[in-house]
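Usage example:
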Amino acid sequence: MKFKIFSTALMIAAAFSMTSFAQMRLTGAGSTFDYPIFSKWFDTYNKMTGTQINYASIGSGGGIQQLTAGTVDFGASDAPLTEEQMNTFKSKRGTDVVHLPIIMGGVAITYNLPSVGQGIKLDGETLADIYLGKITKWNDPRLVKLNPGRNLPNKAILVAHRSEGSGTTFIFTSYLSKVSPEWAKKVGNSISVNWPVGLGAKGTEGVAGIIAQTQGAIGYIELAYAKQNNLPYCAMKNKAGNFIDVNFNTVSEAAAGAAKHMPSDLRAVITNADGKNSYPICGFSWIVVPKDIKDYSHAESLVKFLKWAVTKGQNDATSLYYAPLPKPVQKLDLEKIAMITSNGKKIK
Amino acid sequence: MNENAELTKEYFEKRNKRTKTSAFIKKLLGNNNLGDFIFERLTLLFAMLVFLLVLFMAWEMYSHSILSIKKFGFHFLVTSVWDPFNEVFGALPIIYGTIVSSLLGLLIAVPLGIAVAVFLSEIAPGWLEKPLSFLTELLAGVPSVIYGLWGIFVLVPWLRDNVEPLLQNTFPNSPLFQGAPYGFGMLAAAVILSIMVLPIISSISRDILKSVPNTQREAAYALGATKWEVTKIVLGNAKSGLLGAIMLGLGRAIGETMAVTMVIGNRPQISASLLDPSYTMASVLANEFTEATSDLYLNALIELALVLFVITILINILARLLVWSTERKWKSNPA
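Running the assembly step on the lines above writes:
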């Protein structure tokens, strides 16, 4: 009995301390790509500081809309805001939007050719022509030339792509637009495009499903998924002319290469980046916040969290198959975060 | 019958004496009881709410697609480029894909569904009828994503390795079976849809056939008709009701999302070949809505939803009218 009273008292005390602990509540919405690492971060950060962060993974588009409408503290997007979206934001919220690269993702080009095995070599122009429907067979002279000594079969290429809007598609089409003028003109760079050929599938697992089912298929999927499932992937020729495998190091290297000439608003698309060992098809995911935040306590908590996420938080990246932000980009992020104000006042 | 009515009347008279309603309320209610009055109005209110909800949804969709309606007008329905990057939206291939995949699904499901219904209502003995109807209706309860997974892992490989090569070899010159057989595409969607609408068509058709009065059958048998001839007469009498059952199946097929998305190949194009990928309205919405960032893109998607909404409502109204007309025919005029 005594023990019971004691434990009840303890529980009540614990409940009180919890409530005093969990006073701060931040909300965010957006990218589904970011969701796994965000849930890990929010959990760790809540235990550390008591700040509770609720995140709705409703898609990048939804995140941007919610932030513009002012219903959330931050948004998360796999593609930077367009000029038009930034103007809308400014006219609705009366302040600018700040882009903070928060995590990186790589895009693996995977395929199904059991007789050939891992590591087919590809370059950007060839990949673009496959996706434009100009190269239709695996033993096309251009593919054979890139892969001397490999026995590429006389098989039709089946192109697979994401059917829904996705950050992965944004990164992939950004790369193709940079390496192929014809792609840039005919199709363009967006989170969903009008694909010239191929089958669309919902989600990374859908694309991987088509590839696993169909011999001769090729598709682009997130690095994390390719690694977890041990799928074969292409070595891509980068800007420096080397064939590079996709992994965390080569992706981070691409960001480091891009960090040297980042635009001041950090809306950098880093596909086809400079650097000897840079993997060419990768990109940032962004957290977007208003530059000036009305509520001081929210602003303070948000700034603290963001500082933690772009530095210590990056240690969680590789275990969840994201690539961490390289140091120079972390530094740029911290500079940007320091510029966030509340009603014009600096945040301590 | 008369005795019953008198007893009922007596009961209500007694009860009305027991319940003392004030003169004022009595005047307001006329002959009705207060509880009945409230109950009646309340149910009326809820019934109206459903109707208002439909109108409200239509209005919401219209007002949220106004940008796209203004920009593309009628062209939205008759042009074929769906390009989110350049913000050009023409929904024709998507509308085409929706309607053609559903009709093809019906082409497979209707003969099967009606055959099942005929067996259950005309031929099967009682002990077989119950479990069999239960099993067909069970198909309707399977979540559509399960059909989709089954489609990807069983149906698509089977179509790709067996059915599609066979079709191509049998009809080498038919435009219906051109192109590489990948398994994913219009044919896979049609087969999945046919399985999904089968339980609807068979169970409603069975009810319709059962509503045909037995006197019809007895009369035919008395004239020496065979079982097949009797079935023909019953089917003839139930014609419009069966048509209604088919339309309800069509309504279901048109709105089906997940399973179709997983096997149709998601490509907005109009192609004669059943082996080619296609796209449906519900699939486009499921795929593209979450990541649609620009206003015009969102408006175009909502306009697509509006088109789907209108088509489904029209089909359902037509179907209901047909089913009702059969039922009423037999109720008002039992042969």
